[in-house]
Specification:
The complex is a heterodimer of chains A (639) and B (479). Chain A has 639 residues and is α+β, with helices and mostly antiparallel strands. Chain A is 51% helix and 18% strand. The chains are: A alpha+beta (639), B alpha+beta (479).
């Protein structure tokens, strides 16, 4: 990935992260606000419920007081105190009185807590009423409170406890249990009080009296069964739909007795979800009364609430706002990213241009173009870097020039040394031969002829050597460009071996072994040049094994290349010798010109191949030539 | 009866002013209100107790049976003045009362009587023989006299309009099905002319309407004893018969409550005392047997005491079809007391752990039924009760025909041990009469009677307040 792209990506990610952080922050803030609003709304509905509960309870209490003060109840109380109460006469009394006061429930209970008459379940006469626990039943000897002190004492008495404020109570009916809001009042005619317990149903009609905020709704679960009963979950229209989804929330409140809340997903659309606050409703139990909605005390901690008030608030406003926030964030984020891309494009271009120039210049330098320079556009670190780069290339150029000059001098020196060496060897015999001729002329004329013949022969031979030396130098300087044709390397190998066949047969000490690959592909090459290169390598191998050995020539297909190797089992070369082996005029032989391997390298290089040498001292040397099959392509790639 | 009445009138006239206020008066129209609303003047086999009593009471004014059964269960002459049977009780001969005529003027001859009886009982061979009739049956008929005394054996013909024509003290004057029946006094009745000139019966009146009408003086006889308001003077008198009805729970073969221990637990759970004292206002007697004690004398052997503890133990050992199963208890919605009694039974059952739901549309696992014990004869009443309760007759037929108390006891015991029926109460039939109504029947004065009230024995002390529904002119003193 380019530096510019990295910069671009960095800028985009930075902007995206900033937008995401802001969006999440806004999202969280909104969510908390809505949750707080939900809680406030639930608390408001719960408070309203309690208020309505109290109001309706006061209404019930007033009606029950009216019943307690009625002539019929006073008569029953009187009969009871006289000991002449006949329950058969009162069976229908409670229903009649309840109808007059529009009470759903009404029971007349005697001083022993036994039902005398029941409006809601007429057949229940004679059964004990749980709302009047035995502990509240006063003794017959307790006088009625008449003084303030006595009245205060009476207010603290169990009877006063029974007649405390309205309370929630489970009421058994012939067709099942229900929940009611009850109040208890006492009709006192004599010593034995007659309890009047009246109430109204706590059902959907009660819920309909609540002023529910828009977007909210309220449900009531009548906790009347040991297990979850979906029919006991009521909304304004009766049994609520989808009750089973609310069951876990209600179960939690039933188990813990504590307020709880949960999100109910009605459909796959989160906007259809509702947040439900479940508020336990406690009531009068077997141990005594407790105000509805109040915190449970220790004595009733193990008792389940009589009801659960569920205040549901739609999540649609929250979800829609969240969606707007998200879409806005995405829009802003997208725009920011686009702006960031554009800005970063400009900025990255501005920042990366010197870097790109430096990289391009470095590539040119690496390719050998030491004239590459970078434009210095700024005075910052990048500008300094560009200036340093320019100084470095200038230094490299100067150093290269000096090196080339030094190499030229060294080459000339080497050439001069070589020439001097090569020429000095034949010149010495020439000098000696001429001096012998002169000496023979002066001192032994009779032997001059013979010496002359021998001397001229020697002169001619040495002159021939000089010609040979000069010819080799000439040949090296005149290496022709290869004339490429499809060439089978194995054929070249065979051709070379035929040349040396006689020589090798004469020297029986050298064993020739060929390992030529089958189906070796043809290569595009100049067979004559290859022949000359291979001939030099074979000649070197023969020279390396004066005491005999094994000469191995291998060909190998390497896919798009062909490998040709020549191995000998001669004395081998040192590492230093291997490093300088292809240097022109460098030779390890007594009479070598040092041009043979240079010519081989030149041929291989002209064919786009490469040559390497492996040698182990006293074990032998192997030369490997790798030649491309498609010479032109390789040559083009090199260009 | 007419000669006797005249003699009594003569006797009372001799007693002078001392007994003047109790002297019966002739004339006037007796107004009656009944709850049932029959569409025909015959006694259906599946009549409810109210329908049964209303129709039998009405038809008994029109017709007579061959014999009647008194409070002690002894047969008394009616249209037959004498009877005899062979030792096997398969051949009976009844000597008929002479000179008796139907309301249409035709003679109640042995041939006519035999024809009516033969039509009622196809299994009998009824033949007229001189001034008597003979009844022959392949199976023995040891309880034939009690059977012949039942209202379903009233000897009635039908006129062209389908109205009954009998030999009783009243004849049909006007009949509006399900609404109104007017009976006129039969001047030629062999029992003597009734005191009142006419009886007007309004059908289909609720007990509440009847009570209000009686309080307002718009009727003379109603079915239920009205509740008196405290402190006010009662404007009516009540007539309460000996218990002649059985209120019981019936658990049919198809009931889900088919485990005997569950049934026994239910029987032990029911506390009858509060139901009797409060819901039945003290009327009736807690029952653990089908037949009342006054009829058999051995009912006390069966305990009607509630025992919730024992019921819980039995329930724990029982096999219910499903845990927490709710059994449906149905009742006759026409019975005004039935609902409350059913609800109380459901309460008692719940107390021991049996969930019973009072329902009119449920599975009818348990039925609260009221059946008629139509005859003072225990065997006849038991047979009729078994039929009405829908109990398997095989259980009863094993000892059918037996007329000893031992047979009856064994029969009842076998019926009750299956717990297919749980007797609750033996109930009397109560009626209330207005202040001007007087009953001449000496056997019902001041004591309860097993026999039904006979309107033919009623007379009216105040003819001026009579306001006939049909605005018929008062015929007081026409005789």
């Amino acid at each position: 990935m380019s530096f510019r792209k990295k910069l671009l990506l960095l800028f985009a990610l930075t902007v995206l992260a900033c937008v995401a952080v802001i969006s999440i922050s806004v999202y969280s803030t909104i969510r908390r606000s809505f949750e707080q609003a939900d809680q406030d709304r639930a608390n408001a509905v719960a408070a309203q419920f309690r208020s309505e509960f109290q109001r309706r309870g006061s209404d019930v209490a007033r009606k029950v007081e009216s019943v307690a003060a009625s002539e019929a109840v006073q008569r029953i109380a009187l009969d009871m105190n006289r000991g002449g109460a006949d329950a058969s006469e009162y069976v229908g009394e409670a229903r009649s009185l309840a109808g007059q006061q529009r009470l759903d429930f009404l029971e007349l209970v005697d001083t022993h807590g036994t039902i005398l008459s029941s409006a809601q379940w007429q057949a229940k006469f004679g059964y004990p009423e749980a709302a009047i626990p035995q502990t509240t039943i006063p003794q017959a000897t307790i006088p009625q409170a008449t003084t303030p002190e006595a009245a205060a004492s009476d207010a603290r008495s169990p009877t006063a406890t029974v007649t405390a404020g309205p309370f929630l109570k489970r009421e058994e009916l012939p067709d099942g249990a229900t929940l009611g809001l009850f109040a208890v009042r006492v009709a006192r005619v004599g010593e034995q009080p007659l309890y009047v317990i009246g109430g109204e149903r706590l059902d959907q009609a009660f819920l309909s009296t609540l002023d529910i905020p828009a977007g909210s709704r309220v449900m009531l679960y009548q906790n009347l069964d040991a297990k979850w009963n979906p029919k006991s979950l009521l909304d304004l229209n009766g049994p609520a739909a989808g009750a089973d989804q609310i069951a876990p929330l209600v179960a939690k409140v039933r188990d813990t007795g504590q307020e709880s809340q949960s999100v109910i997903h009605w459909t796959a659309d989160p906007a259809d979800a509702e947040v439900f606050h479940a508020i336990p409703l406690s009531g009068r139990n077997a141990t005594g009364p407790r105000a509805a909605g109040s915190e449970p005390d220790a004595s009733s901690a193990n008792q389940q609430p009589l009801g659960v008030l569920l205040v549901g608030t739609s999540r649609r406003p929250l979800i829609e706002l969240q969606r707007r926030v998200i879409s806005t964030a995405m829009l802003v984020g997208g725009a920011g990213i686009l702006a960031a891309v554009l800005a970063s494009l400009w900025f990255a271009a501005r920042v990366s241009r010197p870097v790109v120039s430096l990289a391009e210049a470095a590539r040119r330098v690496a390719a050998g173009d030491l004239d590459a320079r970078v434009e210095v556009e700024s005075t910052d670190e990048l500008g300094e870097l560009a200036a340093s780069f320019n100084r470095m290339t200038e230094d490299l150029t100067e150093q290269k020039d000096r090196t080339v000059q030094a190499e030229r001098v060294a080459a000339w020196r080497e050439l001069a040394r070589r020439l001097a060496h090569e020429l000095k060897n034949p010149l010495f015999p020439l000098q000696v031969t001429v001096e012998n001729l002169m000496r023979a002329k002066e001192k032994s004329p009779e032997m001059f002829e013979e010496v002359f013949r021998e001397g001229t022969a020697t002169l001619l031979e040495e002159i021939s050597n000089l010609k040979t030396i000069i010819g080799r130098f000439s040949e090296f300087s005149r290496m022709p460009q290869p004339q490429r044709h499809p060439t089978q390397v194995n054929d070249v190998v065979c051709s070379v071996l035929r040349v040396f066949l006689a020589q090798l047969q004469a020297k029986n000490e050298i064993l020739v072994r060929t390992e030529l690959a089958d189906r070796l592909p043809e290569i595009s090459a100049d067979s004559d040049l290859l022949h000359r290169a291979l001939q030099n390598l074979v000649l070197n191998a023969i020279d390396a094994m004066p005491q005999g050995g094994e000469l191995t020539i291998r060909t190998l297909s390497l896919g798009d290349r062909v490998e040709l190797s020549v191995s000998d089992t001669g004395s081998g070369l040192t590492h230093e010798e291997c490093g300088r082996l292809f240097t022109p005029y460098y030779t390890t032989k007594q009479h070598g010109t040092g041009l043979g391997l240079a010519i081989v390298q030149s041929v291989v290089s002209d064919h786009g191949g490469k040559i390497s040498v492996e040698s182990t001292k006293e074990q032998g040397t192997t030369f490997r030539m790798e030649l491309p099959c498609d010479f032109s392509a390789h040559s083009a790639s090199l260009r | 009866m007419r000669p006797i009445a005249y003699l009594l009138l003569a006797a009372t006239s001799l007693l002078g002013a001392v007994a003047a206020e109790t002297r019966p008066h002739y004339g006037g129209t007796l107004r009656v209100m009944l709850q049932s609303a029959p569409s025909a003047l015959d006694l259906p086999a599946n009549a409810t107790p109210a329908e049964y009593w209303d129709l039998s009471r009405t038809l008994s004014l029109i017709g007579n049976t061959l014999v009647s059964i008194d409070a002690q269960g002894r047969p008394q002459p009616a249209l037959a003045v004498a009877w005899q049977s062979d030792a096997s009780a398969t051949h009976w001969q009844f000597t008929l009362r002479r000179g008796v005529k139907f309301h249409d003027g035709s003679a109640a001859s042995p041939a006519a009587i035999a024809r009516i009886l033969g039509a009622l009982h196809s299994g009998w061979n009824v033949r007229p023989v001189a001034d008597s009739i003979t009844i022959e049956s392949a199976p023995p008929l040891p309880s034939l006299l009690a059977e012949l005394a039942l209202p379903r054996n009233l000897l009635l013909k039908r006129n062209a309009n389908g109205a009954p024509v009998g030999t009783g003290p009243f004849l049909v004057a006007e009949w509006q099905p399900s609404q109104f029946l007017k009976l006129a006094a039969n001047e030629e009745s062999w029992e003597g002319r009734p005191f009142v000139d006419a009886v007007e019966i309004e059908f289909g009146k609720t007990l509440r309407d009847q009570a209000i009408a009686l309080e307002l003086g718009k009727t003379d006889v109603i079915e239920e004893v009205p509740q008196t308001t405290n402190g006010s003077q009662p404007r009516s008198t009540a007539s309460v018969s000996l218990p002649t009805e059985l209120l019981a729970l019936v658990l049919s073969v198809n009931s889900r409550a088919n485990d005997p221990r569950l049934r026994e637990a239910l029987a032990l759970a029911i506390n009858r005392k509060p139901i009797q004292s409060v819901l039945l206002k003290g009327a009736g007697e807690p029952a653990a047997s089908i037949l009342p004690n006054w009829m058999t004398g051995f009912s006390v052997v069966f305990s009607a005491q509630a025992n919730p503890q024992e019921a819980r133990i039995l329930l724990a050992d029982s096999h219910q079809p499903a845990p927490n199963l709710t059994y449906d208890l149905s009742y006759d919605p026409r019975d005004p007391q039935a609902q409350l009694i059913a609800e109380r039974i459901a309460l008692n059952a719940r107390e021991v752990g049996i969930t019973v739901q009072v329902s009119l549309s449920g599975a009818e696992d348990i039925r609260l039924v009221r059946v008629v014990l139509p005859s003072p004869d225990p065997a006849t009443s038991l047979s009729e009760a078994v039929r009405q309760l829908g109990l398997p007759r095989a259980a009863f037929s094993a000892t059918a025909g037996g007329d000893t108390l031992e047979d009856l006891y064994q029969t009842e015991r076998s019926l009750l041990e299956a717990h297919a029926v749980i007797p609750l109460f033996h109930l009397p039939v109560t009626t209330a009469e207005g202040a001007r109504v007087r009953d001449w029947s000496p056997e019902r004065r001041g004591q309860r009677s097993a026999s039904r009230l006979s309107l033919a024995d009623f007379w009216l002390s105040d003819l001026r307040s009579t306001a006939s529904r049909a605005d018929l002119p008062a015929q007081a003193g026409s005789r």
